[in-house]
Amino acid sequence: MGHDHSHDHTDPPSDPALRVKALESLLVEKGLVDPAAIDEIIETYETKVGPRNGAKVVARAWTDPDFKSLLLLDANKAIHSMGYTGRQGEHMKVVENTAIRHNLVVCTLCSCYPWTVLGLPPVWYKSAPYRARAVSDPKGVLAEFGTTLPKDVKISVWDSTSEMRFLVLPLRPEGTDDWTATELEKLVTRNSMIGVEQALTPEKLQIIEANEKP
Amino acid sequence: MSKTTQHFCNSLPQIPTDAEGPVFAEPWQAQAFALAVHLCDEGHFTWSEWVDMFSQEIKLAQVNGDPDLGNTYYNHWLNVLEKIVTQKQAIKSEEMIARKEEWRSAYLRTPHGQPVEL
Known about the structure:
By secondary structure, chain A is mainly alpha-helical. Chain A has helices at 15-29, 35-49, 52-63, 65-73, 75-81, 115-118, 128-136, 138-144, 181-185, 190-194, 202-212, and strands at 91-96, 101-106, 154-159, 164-169. In chain A, the strands form 2 sheets. In chain A, strands 1-4 form a two-stranded parallel ribbon. A two-stranded parallel ribbon of chain A has the order 2-3. Chain A is globular and about 65 Å long.
């Protein structure tokens, strides 16, 4: 007998996948969950939110001094004014990188993250080594991301909680004085708003865009 | 941009790399994520309740030998989701286990390519 390639069944998915299906179907039956709302949330976080909201906030702060003052004073108000509202009721604080201070964001407890402006957290942000080492050896973590800072720059590490989420306002790269906010957005990476990297330089952006062309 | 990110992350010795594109490794992770967000939105629990339980779950996992490298993150997430739903919504864990097995049987009896229904 040859290989029995059976079509009379479907291989069940992994155990966690079955658990999620069980949970969702029970919640739907009890009227506690609307399946359409679930799909919408997934879509929002996967495609619509992403770090682009954060990039828009940063680019505006670079080009609009009044907005920047408000952002540093009352980040929630400034971010809400751009139409981005959080769902967990957390407070946001924006910390500004300067010529003498670099900021790095971590959540040592779990993985609190400003989803509203950055989308979903990357895997490394959620890992225990990052969470521990961002505090014990921030310079080492930055070096692993290829980020080196001048000797006299101090690093501040900000520990996010369920009540307070931090977002880094990176330094505006040199050579961008005549750039518009829309152009500047492209320089603002997710990692620069977590603080593990600087914003892209115009040269780096050029290289990336060249690589992305088919 | 994701190319750069991946490039930098590849040089991290201990930290798992970020996937290009969506951060969910498997669809169930996105489902579990969205269920928690939705239940919180609907007021079934507060986000700080969630965070408290979630950080306890992670601590417990670490105590039990999970190296906690980020790849088990949604397993912890799912554990907490089941716990919080059991606590708040009166869905019993036996119900969840029974339903899981019903789904498994449904897959096994459904011809390949057909929609799987209970």
